[in-house]
Batch of 4 targets.
Target 1
Amino acid sequence: MKSVLHIFTTFLLLATVQGYLAAQQVRTGIDVLEENGFEQVRGKRIGLVTNPTGVDRYLNSTIDVLFNAPDVELVALFGPEHGVRGNAHAGEHVDEAAVDQRTGVPIFSLYGRTRMPSSDQLEDLDAIVYDIQDIGCRSYTYISTMGNVMKVAAMEDVEMIILDRPNPLGGLRVEGPGVEDSLISFVGQYNIPYVYGLTCGELAMLLNEEGMLKVPGSRGQDSTVKCRLTVVRMEGWTRDMSWDDTGLMWVPTSPHIPTPEAAYLYPATGILGELGCLSTGIGYTLPFGMIACEGMDADLLASRMNALYLPGLLFRPIYATPFYGSLKGRNIGGVQIYITDFGTARLSEIQFYAMEVIAGIKPDFKPFDVPASRLEMFDKVTGSKSIRQEFGKRLRYEDIFSLWNDFSVKFQKMSEKYHLY
């Protein structure tokens, strides 16, 4: 009986895996690398920048795939925010040096006292490989890590290899301003729109070719560097795809992005969340999927948000009590955000429309009456002090419409020459 049950269970598992693989539309960079016999890294000593999102189509870690690859020597791992194995929370420093228990390969932190690998750590490498799933939003720190590694690779003449992955927001959506020079930071390291519409491989090409990789030079002047860059392209991805269209399984990119839906909504509420006066679902069960506050009539807010007829969006009234965060234990009311048409929704605008509507319901609502540290972070994530200054006068999105959109239109046109798909 056990053998029959075992055979049946095995058959069912195989059928499930085969069904999943048949549904896959996209081969990521690591899948293509495996299928071509590791051509781009064969015979090389490599370092790997990755985290738990670096997996192949069978959910095998890229760490283990490259460690076991024939004629490839994996000699170093580099951990971004949250760490190589994902054991660190947002903003938490990652241990400076450790050893990966599974492979015995040394791990070097890129989110501790330093956010760049040292020359010594790259000294014996032929190439450094980057394989991290990003979410297509400038304030998400993985692309800052990617650029920092590219800088050191350029200075040490080490090849940089990007294993490309889909942009969950697609390749057609470009929204938001660039970054003012005074606001350059790890959550806004490049003068690109808040939603930039490129894969990480395409973005790496743009950074490399547009002089955005800058290092301190002589006499206090920054110098531009350029690395030897190879992008292992995906197969099957097109620019109009959402994550759901790819057929790929989602691995949480960070603790508060557990699902593709959270990735879609991160640009819709992430900037607002920096103020701390409203809940965006962090601390509840809908990270980045709601906008709520104390004393709010949820039905009224939902009605007024829906009356805006924002393309591709619907809003549902919701009441909740957050488990943690700035509004922990408080009864709040607001709206849950639903994307009904992924292609037409303008995600980053939602948070500004919501503040406008809330101000119409609650005249005493002052979103910028918060500690200076929160305003500073809001500006850094937005990329522009002008957004807060102009919007803060009347809390009307129309007052910042041009500030929010003009740069992105120009960037979208400029960046087309780096499109790989």
Target 2
Amino acid sequence: MRPLDHATLSRLMTHSQRLKHLVNDLYELSLTDLGGMTYRKNTMDLAALLQESVSSMQAQFSMQHIELALHLQNAPVIIFGDHNRLQQLFVNLLKNSLQYTNAPGVTQVTLKSEQQQAIICIEDTAPGVAEEHHEKLFERLYRADSSRNRTTGGAGLGLSICKNIVIAHEGKITTSNSELGGLKITISLPCAKDHL
């Protein structure tokens, strides 16, 4: 038995938080697999939602000495989607970038519309992911055997949940190498038909 001291209690809290996140992720993933996750879709400005998501993460990025930059086009980008689920998607992707980007570093978020699609790119500085791992990153429980695979990393469920949210919005999500030196995640979502 270990002595009951502050360090032991701190370790127990950390492990229990990890288990809580794992259980929550497994629950969310099972809901998306079964079609049981509820979506309340409305016409919305994706630019405003991205601004809100980035703002909510700004302090965490600053604490880790990683610059979080957002680049939006001047006009609104209107889609038909679920505000809460899309915010969950963007925050999950930003947390992933925060966790796997070396400090000092940069995470860059861009939004543009082209060919009736809203295109969101989230990319970061080193380390990157070898190309042979890109297609598998969205598989559940998969973690690339690279410098982005940290001992403090998650269980490999977050990107699977993200993919399911994107698919539920009739969109696509892909990964590629970023010109910044890390990973680039690109999401395309259909623009609302009344606003094309």
Target 3
Amino acid sequence: MYEQQSTWNPNMPLRCLLYSAHALEKYIHNTGLSAQMFLSTLVKVPTPKLVVLYNGIQEIDDMILRLSDCFEKPGGDLEATVHVYNITAGHRLPRECRPLEEYSLFVDTYRSKVSAVGPGQAADEALSALPDGRVKDYLCSQRSEVVDMLLTEYDEQAVMQAIAKDAEAKGEARGEKRGERRGIKIGEARAENRGEEKLGLLITAMMNAGESMDALARVSTDPAYRKAMYQQYGITSAVLPDEAPADK
């Protein structure tokens, strides 16, 4: 199971565990192995391999992340190991793999130009900078999908800023009604928590429905798309737990 990300995220073992469990569940169902899980014969499934290809601007080395690092207490009985490889130009893997080296060149060129000329032209100039070969041919043949991928890359910082801004607005509105400073703080905290809970419910529903990684990334960064997905999956504030009354 491979995932490419441009923003560093230490939660990849937990995310990959959920992705893998969902994929294995579908595999067992589609291959008719569900009933055999209750028999004495050992059920065989594909061997999981969890890999993250990182090409963000934060400088990190190749590393291994483990699910157990996020456990509140040591000694848990569940583990997931994720191999993280930095594929930014100049790192080990691109030097050893020509296609990754050319892809890294494409991404670096795009980033250096997008703020000045816009995504479309930046993609064209980045493609022109590539040497002729299979990588350039493939990216050119999938140009619209490539540009869409670049536009919808998951950006954790942008997501957190958007959540914080929304929580701040809701908190201020509640605080004005209460008319006291403590009410402002309580309102902001509850608004932020409910916003995060609602987004979490949506992402879980989309994962269970088998939505693509591009869709999961887009719902985190595109408010209009997120609103449409809330409607499609029937997720409203009404499905969240009721708030306790505010302290007087």
Target 4
Amino acid sequence: MATEVFREKSPLSVKDSFVLFERTKASFTFPIHTHDVWELNFVEHAAGARRIVGDSDESIGERDLVLLANTGLKHAWLNGDCRSDEIHEITLQFSPSLFDNGIFQKNQFDSIMKMFVKAEYGLAFGEKAIDRILPVLRMISTERGFYSVMKFFILLYELSLSDDVRTLSKRTSDEVTENDYQMKKILDYIGKNVSSSITVDELAQYMGMSLSTLSRFLKKNTRHNFTDFLQEYRINSVVRELNNNEKECIMDIASRYGFVSQSYFYKVFKKLKGVTPQEYRENYQRIRVVV
């Protein structure tokens, strides 16, 4: 069954050159989506995870590096057969308009611009390319201002010279599967009711599934039971707010996502993220780069 793919809005502002996120997590929870920016995504310690880019659907190895230069290209990293609880991900998002400036039509940027044309269908880089650029990618998160931007361009240039690369998708858009549709329907329901109490019975009734069918579906697609999946959804929602809101009271944010008890919220957050919400916010400010 066809349906609209989830449309993500990037936190990148019109005044930023790029935004970089780095995180360690136990599972992939974001649905198949598109967004209004281009993206370079690096994933490690996630062997067996499922990567979808357009009509490409593959199981990844220990390390995965993909460039997407198409705001309409659906993509996602899903759990698949990944059993790691130390998935490490670095995501670098940037606007296509960044390269509208005439300087990027100069000969020195020719290989980068040609790479972007190929990346319209998604480009996956091999181990040699990853080995070459990974130190620069890790370094970007430690830099600020001018030097961070220069390393960003160096990173793109080094990738553009690589012959250890392949195109992923034959088409830039595709219909999602019935399984994708059901997962999106679950996420939509939870998203609309996240501030309220949500029971597994209510969700099963909404989905038109028996409790056992819903349980099997969630276990297969998220590796979680309903309670754990809902907890992780809520905590990840809080995390996204913490990433983009440096000043608002943490419990005010948490309450919008169904947490009424501070002690319970802190307990669940620490269990899933390994740190307290305040520690996460402080650490995040050290790894997030916006230039």
